[in-house]
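BUG: 3D viewer hangs when loading the predicted structure for this chain

Environment: internal workstation, default settings.
Expected: structure renders.
Actual: progress bar stalls at 90%.

Input used:
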Amino acid sequence: MRTTIKVLFFISIILLSYLCIMSVLTPIRFEESKNSREKDIIKRLMDIRKAQVEFKDQKGRYTTSFDTLVIFVKNAKKKIVLKEGALTDKQLEAGLTEAAAVKIVKKGNAQEIAASGLQGFVRDTAYVNLLEAIFPTDYTAETINELGIIPFSNNQKFEIKVKNDYTNSNGIKIPLLEVSAHYKSYLFDLDEQELVNVIDLQEKLFRFPGLKIGSVEEPNNNAGNWE
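Structure tokens produced before the viewer hung:
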């Protein structure tokens, strides 16, 4: 009987020691995994923001469809202004503007160009493939299809909210964008209790439980909630 009690006591000590160690290690491991995953998700959110801004600049609005956004990035062109040379202080003081200088150069009159001191002054517009312009090394025509997928999720997509008719205090309409990924989408396979804890903490602080850019409540320049 004494031997049995000793064995049970020894097992209890080992079990309690294990539980104590895990109570310390589990939150640490959870936080490490969370931080590691969020680096990739932040990068993806910033890429989405970049694509949406280009879409808005050309279309005047944001889109709620990743299919539409991906097709746009694949097929659209981006205007690039090639600049060489600059106006001197003397030219500016004489009233020569960038617009006027461009007109003179475009005429192609060598004598007028020389008289205006615009030799070597170049302002040329070119159109390049948007995908290559904004994502030169990050995506190809095939991998850009993954733009809307949340890393470390079960192929879940980021949630897009758009308010294209928001009117500011000056009566000016400003399109608003919000793109988010909930903790549950990319931390679902980690410790369940730690996930509940981190969501509960954010909700008590009235913060979004996850990562997001922008807001459809008020303009914030599409800032990320980690910035």
